[in-house]
Specification:
CATH class of the domain at 2-181 and 232-262: Alpha Beta
Shape: globular
CATH topology of the domain at 2-181 and 232-262: Rossmann fold
Bound molecules: nicotinamide-adenine-dinucleotide, uridine-diphosphate-N-acetylglucosamine
Number of helices: 11
Helix content: 25-40%
Number of strands: 13
CATH superfamily of the domain at 2-181 and 232-262: NAD(P)-binding Rossmann-like Domain
């Protein structure tokens, strides 16, 4: 039996495949390479000594997906595939709804045809919207403020409805907080296209000299130093959460949403200071206006993952920044 990993050549997917291989599980990756390359497969092989089975296909292509399920004995799907840039989603919303929502529905239809009814889905803390006060708890009301967030919320609703309609389905929605860091080998890590939108890839590209200056979006929030506070989570801890979620599927009925965070908040300036300390590099920054859509503080209540998955974050902020810097300094231009 194999696990199907959609989006498995991407940032979180590639780290998860490494942890699944370390746990001696078989995997099949499907990815259309829209935001990744097969270089990550070479690196996974370098780390683990095993090369994942890889099929270049789009999850929206039902014929291609049927072929995958015909040729491989799939027990469950970890569904990472999707587009993830918030700003881009406001410019090309239809691509986001097509890929993330229609693509997931197509995948679920094919899974149903092949009677594969186990899924772990990549959701996001973005579904908590703007009004809830941290720590964010899984039972809080959800909402979305941009097309990307809408797609995550719509897929969550689809998965809740599906599980209600048929008790054979077992689904876990992992609501990730802010994944950062890289594998400790420095061989795989985040490799954004173009100018990064997220804080950590931006800071590390400034540290390595690819970008001149960080803009800190606002220092007038009601936080310890006025800059935005987030719950950063090491990507390897996040990968391990997927491993635990897959094994928990057998014991959990229906559809369950679970936060994956540390429960701690870190400000932008704390990240900059830690990055300077770890890298020894200068990180020039200027204070800029707030970024539309941002809120002051976001962190998780992380107890449910411990109760249901026997998971908790093991890696601290030092580990996250040290590993980010190792990846960035060993691969100043990403996988290229
Ligand atoms: P990523 O872009 O590195 O990985 C996603 C992968 O999916 C890419 O390799 C891409 O080529 C592939 N893909 C996209 N559309 C596809 C399609 N239609 N068919 C097949 N493959 C397709 O992103 P990531 O950071 O690894 O994120 C993985 C998942 O986690 C995404 O669903 C993302 O929305 C979600 N998520 C990410 C974060 C984050 O900060 N990185 C936070 C919360 C949730
Ligand atoms: C962003 C998305 C969120 C998505 C998440 C993971 C927005 C509004 N939210 O979350 O939907 O799920 O990424 O992909 O885009 N910052 C700077 N300068 C920068 C970049 C960021 O000061 O150049 C600050 C931000 O204001 C924020 C913090 O750093 O306070 C973290 O930002 P980021 O990494 O983009 O993550 P989120 O905003 O939490």
């Amino acid at each position: 039996m194999s696990l199907l990993i959609t989006g498995g050549t991407g940032y979180i997917g590639s780290h998860t495949v490494v942890e699944l291989f370390n746990d001696n599980q078989d995997v099949v990756i499907v990815d259309n390479l829209v935001n990744s390359s097969t270089n990550s497969l070479d690196r996974i092989e370098q780390i683990t000594g095993k090369r994942p089975t890889f099929i270049e296909a789009d999850i929206c292509d039902k014929a291609a997906m049927r072929k995958v399920f015909t040729e491989h004995d799939i027990s469950a799907v970890i569904h990472f595939a999707g587009l993830k840039a918030v700003g881009e989603s406001t410019q090309i919303p239809l691509s986001y709804y097509h890929n993330n929502v229609a693509g997931t529905v197509a995948l679920l239809e094919v899974m149903t045809e092949f009677n594969v009814k186990n899924m772990v889905f990549s959701s996001s803390a973005t579904v908590y919207g703007e009004s809830n006060v941290s720590p964010l708890v899984e039972t809080m009301p959800t909402s979305a403020t941009n097309p990307y967030g809408q797609t995550k919320l719509m897929v969550e609703h689809i998965l809740f409805d599906l599980a209600k309609s048929d008790p054979q389905w077992s689904i876990i929605l992992l609501r990730y907080f802010n994944p950062i860091g890289a594998h400790s080998s420095g061989l795989i890590g985040e490799n954004p296209n173009g100018i990064p939108n997220n804080l950590l890839p931006f800071v590390s590209q400034v540290a390595v000299g690819r970008l001149a200056q960080l803009q800190v979006y606002g220092n007038d929030y009601d936080t310890l130093d006025g800059t935005g506070v987030r719950d950063y989570i090491h990507v390897v801890d996040l990968a391990i959460a997927h491993l635990k979620a897959v094994s928990a599927l057998a014991n959990l009925e229906g559809c369950t949403a679970i936060n994956i965070g540390t429960g701690n908040g870190t400000s932008v300036l704390q990240i900059v200071d830690k990055f300077k300390e770890v890298s020894g590099a200068d990180i020039p920054f200027k204070i800029s206006p707030r970024r539309p859509g941002d809120i002051a503080t976001v962190f998780a209540e992380a107890k449910l993952a411990n109760t249901l998955l026997a998971w908790q974050a093991e890696r601290n902020l030092d580990d996250m920044i040290i590993d980010t810097w190792r990846w960035q300094s060993q691969n100043p231009n990403g996988f290229e």
